[in-house]
Amino acid sequence: xxxxxxxxxxxxxxxxxxxxxxxxxxxxxxxxxxxxxxxxxxxxxxxxxxxxxxxxxxxxxxxxxxxxxxxxxxxxxxxxxxxxxxxxxxxxxxxxxxxxxxxxxxxxxxxxxxxxxxxxxxxxxxxxxxxxxxxxxxxxxxxxxxxxxxxxxxxxxxxxxxxxxxxxxxxxxxxxxxxxxxxxxxxxxxxxxxxx
Amino acid sequence: xxxxxxxxxxxxxxxxxxxxxxxxxxxxxxxxxxxxxxxxxxxxxxxxxxxxxxxxxxxxxxxxxxxxxxxxxxxxxxxxxxxxxxxxxxxxxxxxxxxxxxxxxxxxxxxxxxxxxxxxxxxxxxxxxxxxxxxxxxxxxxxxxxxxxxxxxxxxxxxxxxxxxxxxxxxxxxxxxxxxxxxxxxxxxxxxxxxxxxxxxxxxxxxxxxxxxxxxxxxxxxxxxxxxxxxxxxxxxxxxxxxxxxxxxxxx
Lengths: 196, 252
Known about the structure:
The complex is a heterodimer of chains A (196) and B (252).
Chain A: H1 4-15, H2 21-41, H3 44-61, H4 72-91, H5 120-138, H6 142-152, H7 158-165, H8 169-186
Helix pairs in contact in A: 1-2, 2-3, 2-4, 3-4, 6-8, 7-8
Chain B: H1 3-13, H2 19-31, H3 33-50, H4 59-66, H5 84-107, H6 113-141, E1 146-152, E2 159-165, E3 170-176, E4 185-193, E5 196-203, E6 211-216, E7 224-233, E8 246-249
Antiparallel strand pairs in B: 1-2, 1-8, 2-3, 3-6, 4-5, 4-7, 7-8
């Protein structure tokens, strides 16, 4: 994750409408947010719509960002996840459609052309993050990983998870609690202080 | 920290709390350092999890987001999307002016009945226009209204926005800094439905390259996949003339 102070300065620059601030924010987080959105909604077009709306919200509400409630990354992720889950719920689907057909853009499609590749530092950061997260998830017992994925990426409440897995609610709560605690411990070095 | 607190933290970071519950929890966080530290750390850890599988955004998405910053310095007049505050001030000033005029004329009614009737007719006309504007304001303030911004595929940075409602399907179009075009030409809006472009309104830029269309017909059925704008002969075309000048995916 980028330096927390740098991110806060960047959001402040967005508030002041400094030229290039939004560009930097986008280049820093769009790929990660797009990946999150895609994992939730299941197709590229909807994922990009979610990301576009997230950045539009960030643009209009940058002045409302508060560092004492979390990092800029967490702020953006929360907005993206919320919008993506809302979209899925609006469609009436309750689970990620892994069978969804990807909308492939052909060369004549003017709305889908490649974005500039991430710079070297961003690629290195992305790789480090992916490695650590995969290791952290691999260390979780399967039942804890399962409830975490259902809760976070499919937006199921713990009650809904209990019903789906035919497992007592108390057991689900315990698994979620333990999973989050372990994840927090495993990813501690990457998580910057959210407050100063 | 006990299990109940940890369960509450889990509910907060997973977004399961109602707005009131979340506000109460965040208030508790401000006074309980241990609670705050754990909750924020879990939120950050989940953010790391969320960002772990990046997926490169398309150029059109990048252009669309960066268009939020508006045209670069030195470009034509800044984009002016329908200024709601200006409308509201003008609407209320017009109402106040109308009321004041009516009261003044009523005091001299005996000596100028014909003039009074003419003013009443003008007042009714203004009231009808205000009602139409209020309807427009209600449309714009509707939380279900969705705004889609199209970005130019050419080097220039005009701004074309489509404000759409899903139910019923209605839309308004606003554009600014459009390049000038010939007298025999017009921009035309297209909805791409199930892979096929369907023609919609044509529009020509006025002062400052602005254009506004308050009633944009939308396809009644079908999957709306994208919107696009092309340059056509003045009366419009049945099929689009490439290249596409502005576009945005709708992703239905």
